[in-house]
Amino acid sequence: MGAKKPVAVVVGGSIAGLSCAHALISAGWRATVIEKSAGPQSGSPTGAGLGLDPQSLRLVCRWTSDPNFLHAATVPLSIDINRVTDSKRKVSRTLTRDEGFNFRAAHWADLHSILLQALPPGTVVWGHQFLSFDVSNDKSFVVTKSRVLLTDEVVEIAGDLLVAADGCLSSIRRHFLPDFKLRYSGYTAWRGILDFTGKESSDIILGVRRAYPELGDCLYFDLATGTHSVLYELKCKRLNWLWYVNGPEPEHKGSSVTIKASNDMIQKMHEEAEKVWVPELSRIMKETDEPFVNIIYDSDPLPRLYWDNVVLIGDAAHPTTPHGLRSTNMSIQDAGILGYCLEKWGLEHLSMALEEFQTTRLPVVSKQVLHSRKLGRLKQGLVVDGQETFDPMTATPEDCLQLQQRRVPYFEECAIYSIRKPWPR
Length: 425
Ligand SMILES: Cc1cc2nc3c(=O)[nH]c(=O)nc-3n(C[C@H](O)[C@H](O)[C@H](O)COP(=O)(O)OP(=O)(O)OC[C@H]3O[C@@H](n4cnc5c(N)ncnc54)[C@H](O)[C@@H]3O)c2cc1C
Known about the structure:
It comes from Musa acuminata subsp. malaccensis. By secondary structure, the protein is an alpha+beta fold.
């Protein structure tokens, strides 16, 4: 009989948690994922688009063992373009163009579903709200308590390792860092997806394809004075857009950074969009059902990523603004590196494994979070490092290069490559 497999309890069944379950199972562990949602959130109103980098794509392909599946669910983002919109004349011109971008666009719910389908049945326990944990005196195991939301029963699940993948408002992180606070970025994001099924030849879609001719292969950023927007295409005839708007921190209730927008808010957004953006983009915003608002937060880098046999990954470990397209990519790569370290050191050297995980990941994620913060402030015309604000109308071509995605630290050589282990290409 083989040796008993080590066991991990993962809190959070979103991208970081499911990726972690895959990485740990690949490393010879067993994993149980505790998730408070009642079931998989396909078609969730909070879900929208995200960009996957080549390293994340490779990892997901490896875990799901069918590269075609992921390929079929995503759209290439080969080109990264920044443009400036002259809001008075309603015209745009290109500031930067990078044809070596090599990302792919996915809908959050599609990626989540691909990761979930490829896990052994029963890996995720849905409708369980994690409450607390206790580390044994000899630090050899962790016992978690969760409430089964359907019955109100409290159940215990034990493991050799507790992984906190419970998102940017992580309660496990709060246990170790009670004074930790998220930092409001200074702006919120309107987000939406226009489903144009059956409307491929409509004036709106033909118009947007004329104004954004490389949709389907390109990540478009439009900058105007003190604001910016994002537009790209997703599979199944969907256009994904975001629009960042400066303002005071909105009031919101506890456990979400997403706000459901009232009709009044949506109406005002449409009116503003007409003033700022080219008509083809403001029309896309106007045609979109149920746009919603994300309040944008991040945090200064955490001092560490693990305590005893508890480790943080994903947004719990590094809340970030979205401008470097990093949060999902960092989550997937955290999981990949954690799996690698656990396999390399084995359960008997768990602390060495967690130390290597932290040493490998902390410098990378810290730089990426701070870079993303800077990029957001530049594009929103906010002060960065006490210097003059960036004005896309007058910026020099050299200044504009800082807007490019490839300026994100570790863009070319992700830390994955620094590990001396053959990695699937
Ligand atoms: C429904 C949903 C839709 C999203 N859509 C997008 C998108 O379209 N584009 C994008 O860029 N990002 C999206 N995100 C965010 C994105 O997943 C993250 O920014 C990034 O991938 C990091 O993921 P994460 O798993 O670390 O955190 P999150 O995605 O925030 O996941 C945290 C998970 O932990 C669970 N959780 C928290 N507390 C508890 C508890 N006490 N007990 C049990 N479970 C708990 C939450 O329910 C959640 O599933 C979405 C997140 C969610 C949850």
